[in-house]
Structures are given as structure tokens and as C-alpha cells.
Design brief:
Number of strands: 8
CATH architecture: Beta Barrel
Number of domains: 1
Helix content: under 10%
Order of helices and strands: EEHEEEEEE
Strand content: 35-45%
Radius of gyration: 13 Å
Structural class: mainly beta
Distance between the termini: 8 Å
Largest sheet: 8 strands, antiparallel, barrel
Length: 115
């Protein structure tokens, strides 16, 4: 499944992985949230409810462009810089054509919808 993320007059498409957490996220779409910077490697958006943790477990090959969910805080994490797996982090998918829109600093309205 593919999801369009729209903010700051830009669009990004993510392909979701086949796991229970990603399916739970997809069931909530469309969503209108706020996206903001966190640390120096990701943007975050807080979901209206927590996702099932059934897709959790350690993973490797972490890289910019990953779409994740951080279960302890209930937020999406859209990575534009390097990061490391930590307990509670669930990978939901990957952005297809780059992640350059994430590099623009600031807080923006965010719309997420199935494509």
C-alpha cells in the first residue's frame, strides 16, 4: 500500500511494509495532523491513538527515508538523517522518491492519505 504525505506544499509517497502495525496505521487514513522537527534527524507527527505493537522487533539497515512508529510516545518518525534502532521503534515503510521535503525545518499541517 502507498501513502501520500502532503505538507509545506510538497508531496512524498511512502510504501508501507506488510506488518500489523503498518496495516493499523493504514486503517486510520486519511489523517490531518501536525508535523514538526525532532532532534536533527527526523520529523514527528503524533497519531490520535496508539498503533498495535504487533509489528515490533529489532531491525537493521536503518537509513534516512524510513517511516517508523515510536510506540512509547505514539508518534510517527519520518527519518531524514541517520538513526539507530531502539526498543519501541517499529518500521512501517519507506519513502519512495527521496525525503528532501523533510529537510525543511519548521512545523506544518500534514495530510496523509492512501494513493
Amino acid at each position: 500500500m502507498k501513502v501520500r504525505f502532503t505538507f509545506n506544499d510538497q508531496h512524498m509517497i511512502a510504501s508501507l511494509y506488510d506488518n500489523p502495525s503498518a496495516a493499523d496505521f493504514a486503517s486510520m487514513l486519511p489523517l490531518e495532523l501536525t508535523i514538526d522537527n525532532y532532534a536533527n534527524n527526523e520529523k514527528v507527527a503524533y497519531l490520535p491513538r496508539k498503533l498495535t505493537p504487533a509489528g515490533s522487533g529489532p531491525f537493521g539497515n536503518e537509513r534516512a527515508g524510513d517511516l517508523c512508529y515510536f510506540a512509547p510516545w505514539g508518534n510517527l518518525a519520518l527519518f531524514y538523517g541517520g538513526y539507530r534502532y531502539s526498543a519501541g521503534l517499529i518500521r512501517l515503510g519507506r519513502f519512495e522518491a527521496g525525503f528532501e521535503p523533510l529537510l525543511v525545518r519548521g512545523e506544518f499541517p500534514l495530510r496523509m492519505e492512501r494513493t
